[in-house]
Specification:
Blueprint (H helix, E strand, L loop, with lengths): L10 H14 L97 E13 L8 E5 L8 E5 L1 H4 L8 H4 L4 E11 L2 E4 L7 E3 L2
Parallel strand pairs: 3-5
Antiparallel strand pairs: 1-2, 1-4, 2-3, 4-5, 4-6
Length: 210
């Protein structure tokens, strides 16, 4: 068996061999992340605009440097128009009456004793019927309605003749239904003996008050 022996290298040979090995290994430096920017001579750097974020941020989120959050402006609340009370209207004014003693009488009505001052005028006379009389035996079959005191002291009479009397039903003739009632009679006032009267009274000429 043959044993091989290597001669020891000199210092110069050892250094030379080391340089050869180091030349084959390249040392690389880590590259920096992100693009690199270079400015032309005399150029002014451009600063990107400030980022404005939404007022609402996710939990744990932070704002980058230079970022601002705009103020939150609440929408105005809608207000209902003011409620105003309806206008107050006064009740209708009642029609004027001749006197406060007879509020149910028609406007312009007069009492039986005042009829003498209105002879020849178309007036309305109101009063209580204190006496009635149907004179069938007399020509024309008149019915007398005496307003005020009874005959012969009465001041006013309404005369219904047989032709007009037919306007009333058989069970409601004027000498019966008006006795003791307060009525108003409308027509032309005329003088007769010691009293005044309205002649040829029809059913439409009489208004029952009470």
């Amino acid at each position: 068996m043959k044993i091989l022996f290597f001669k020891p290298l000199s210092v110069a040979a050892f250094l030379g061999a080391s340089l050869i090995v180091l030349g084959c290994v390249s040392v690389s430096t880590p590259a920096t992340s992100g693009p690199s920017f270079s400015l032309a001579p005399g150029a002014t750097p451009t600063v990107p605009p400030v980022v404005t974020l939404s007022p609402t941020l996710a939990p744990g989120a932070t704002l980058p440097p230079g970022a601002t959050v705009p103020p939150i402006t609440a929408e105005p609340h809608l207000t209902a128009p003011p409620v105003t009370d309806p206008p107050v209207t006064s009740p209708p004014t009642a029609e004027p009456t001749p006197t406060s003693e007879h509020p149910n009488w028609p406007v312009g009505a007069i009492e039986p004793k005042a009829a003498v001052d209105h002879v020849g005028q178309n007036m309305t006379v109101c009063g209580n019927v204190n006496a009635t009389n149907w004179v069938f035996a007399e020509k024309g079959h008149p019915t007398w309605l005496n307003l005020g005191p009874a005959y012969p002291n009465h001041k006013f009479s309404a005369v219904i003749w047989g032709e007009q009397r037919r306007e009333w039903p058989l069970n409601g003739k004027p000498d019966v239904v008006y006795l003791g009632r307060q009525i108003c009679v409308t027509g032309v006032i005329e003088a007769y003996q010691t009293w005044t009267q309205i002649d040829n009274v029809s059913k439409a000429d009489i208004q029952v008050i009470q």
